[in-house]
Structure prediction request, 286 residues.
Amino acid sequence: MTQPSPAQKSVAKSLYGGSGSRRITVRDIAAAKERGEKWPMLTAYDAMTASVFDEAGIPVLLVGDSMGNCHLGYESTVPVTLDEIVMLSAAVVRGTTRSLVVGDLPFGTYQEGAVQALRSATRLVKEAGVGAVKLEGGERSADQVELLVSSGIPVMAHVGLTPQSVNAYGGYPVQGRGEEAAQQLLRDAKAVQDAGAFAVVLEAVPAELAAEVTRSLGVPTVGIGAGADCDAQVLVWTDMAGMTAGRLPKFVKQYLQMRELLGGAAKAFAEDVVGGAFPAEEHTFH
Ligand code: KIV
Prediction:
């Protein structure tokens, strides 16, 4: 039997900013929680963008079903298929060397039960090479989490606002408001932790409640619209980089105006072509 290498036995000293020639694993994530280290996560949907984030030291990349809205032109995450997630997850894995790549299980590929979830997650692990999968739901998805984890597939859970339920919500409302809803959210987060999830995404949850969940869990919480006290923070990359058109949720911070920059570059190219300035001599073979 192959023995683990020294690198596999040890854990990364830090998730962000650390060096190392191997991929981040769920053991590194657990060690970061013990150290009280905060860490960033971004979505990625293609090899080239993923390689930029990998080089920037982002330790965890989520091939989220947000690709439905951000990459594939759907109106929500609901139509995204497992084939689409598998194909783009494989691209993200190919574009990275250090980031832990987490593949999202899309709507309809795990709700039937644990066996369906295992079949879907197995495709992501075997065909795309992801290191973990993510699924939505707390108590309602605990059986799925348990079977995946006991089968050797690390699971990131996702509670609070679960966008695959947009049709049931009638929008994207903040979750966990009021005593009863807050208690349910706590039960949901504990249920997936107890089922073996290595991290729990908290989406659109009041900051005070997210802080309480974070204190009460032994695994890291990954906040998106859940305040500053979560162990990690995730943003959809196209939102973070200013690529998304239209109104953005309140919790998004834009670090770049990429849509404007790219549109400007496209216009400059078009004007050069129309005006005859491109191609110039240096772009020409003789
Ligand atoms: O699909 C996605 O990008 C997500 C994140 C917003 C957590 O689920």
User: Anything to note?
Assistant: The beta strands are 39-43, 60-63, 100-104, 132-136, 155-160, 199-203, 221-224, 232-235. The longest strand covers residues 155-160. The mean pLDDT is 95. The radius of gyration is 20 Å.
